[in-house]
Amino acid sequence: MSYFRLSPDCLLAEGGNGAALYDVRNQRVYLLDGRAYRFLRHCENNGRVDEKECVTGAALLAQLESEGLGAFEPAPAFIDKWLPSSPVRPKGFLGPAPRYRMVYWSITNRCLLDCSFCGTEGTVTWQTCLTCLRRDRGRGDGPCIANVEETIGQLAKLNVETIVVRGGDPFLALDRLREIRAAVLRRPRIMLVVVSPGLARTAEEILDFLNSPRVRLLIVLFGLDAVTTRTVTGHDDVHERQRMLLGILRDRRLAFHSTMLLTEATRERHEDIADEWRRQWGTAPQFAECYEHEMLRRGGRFVIPQPGAKRLAPWLSPREFFWRIQNKPCLYGQFEIDLGGSIRPCPGLSEVCGEIRNDDLRRALMARTLYDRWWSMSKSSVKSCSNCALRFACNDCATVEILGAADPAVKQAYCSYDPDSDEMTHERAWSPPEFVKILRG
To answer: From residue 240, how far is each of 67, 198, 199, 281, 340 by CA, in Å?
Structure first.
């Protein structure tokens, strides 16, 4: 007779129809069948292990011991599970101060392109925050923040790390954009990123604007070639002009980011796009994906999170893993200031959490909705994900998660696994394969 306890940095999680063992320090997940989970839970409760009577269970424990995930003990062992340091929060009276990381700021609704899906109802977008998609293409520019200097001063006092200026195309509001740039560069440490197709100004004007290591362009691309780009944007010269701008940025060694917006014209070619991009520019673009809601109801699938096997998201450190249990990486620490001065959780979500048209930014941020609902959101808060054993190894776009909670067609589009079905977690295919292993009891 002996006992077995999992290592302090291993977490056992149960779902509706499966379980997972998280090796937090080594960034691995082990999928467990029902027998393996029940046996490990018995061990974690300091239940005795009889190697002669339970040969299969003993073999499972020996495998875990060989991989450094636990150890046999001669007597019941009491182990403090490893947790990250964090402020004590008794009944909500104490808590960590909010950490403001990123602000999205829309300054214009104008754009030179004619993308049919932009700013229209019935469109679902994966990672809107990486694109130039507007909230409402028919809306005029309307009221905007009057005092840019004061607003950026307040953002600096909140220790905001990055301001992402969006549109439409912000270069069509060049005076306001220059005002923001000047105010940002008067403060240390803040990065300014401009999301744009890069078409509203000449290459030299854009390069002059980017002439600072703290100012960068995120250029939004629409196709692999001139034909697909014209199909999406409605213009003939977009592809060539964007390639010319990218070539100049590369030749002058100016850092930039890029997003390829996948649509019906390019969705099936996303791997070709990534390969071509690596060959020409030495790196792959980020991907966002746009779908008509009706097409999702007819069985459409997002190819980025779910090209076949559902793609999981390995964590980079133990601290990130435990942070994920309580928060959602793509929402925590950020908000959007829209064209009318409303504060929203992100560019893809519509809920208003405050207004700064008639108030200063600090007072508008005192509303608890942003923190209590959105910054505290995690996979366990998402109805369709809360009963999944792999919820701590998954990081999907919040926009589609919220829509997917109300519409099964959207949920199926980014994750076809139903934790409340009869299909066991370990019977599914997940990726990347080196991140996920299967253990059977």
So the answer is: 53, 11, 11, 15, 34
Report residue 313 as tokens.
């998201």
User: Which residue did the predictor score with more confidence, 277 or 192?
Assistant: 192
Distance CA 69, CA 21 (A): 10
Q: Collect all residues with Cβ–Cβ distance below 8 Å to 385 and sequence separation of at least 6.
A: 379, 391, 394, 401, 415, 419
Q: pLDDT for 294-314, tens place per residue?
A: 888 888 889 887 666 788 889
Residues 6+ apart with CB under 8 A from 186: none
Distance CA 230, CA 240 (A): 11
Handedness of CA 273, 277, 279, 283 (dihedral sign): negative
What is the spatial distance between Cα 296 and Cα 123, in angstroms, rounded to a whole number?
10
Q: How far apart are CA 14 and CA 178, in angstroms?
A: 52
- AA identity, residue 305: P
- 356: tokens are 């700064």
What region does 168 belong to: left with phi over 0, alpha with psi -120 to 50, or beta? left
354 three-class SS: strand
End-to-end CA distance of the chain: 19
Task: Report the alpha-carbon distance of residue 305 to residue 415 in Å, rounded.
Answer: 8
Site of tokens 């197709």: 197
**102 pairs with which residues across the strands?**
162, 334
In the three-class reduction of DSSP (H, G, I as helix; E, B as strand; rest coil), residue 295 is classed as helix
Task: Tell me how crowded residue 271 is: count the other CB atoms within 10 A of its CB.
Answer: 10
CA angle 401, 405, 406 (to 5 degrees): 125
What is the pTM assigned to this prediction? Answer: 0.90
CB of 206 within 8 A of CB of 198? yes
Angstrom distance (rounded) from CA 71 to CA 58: 12
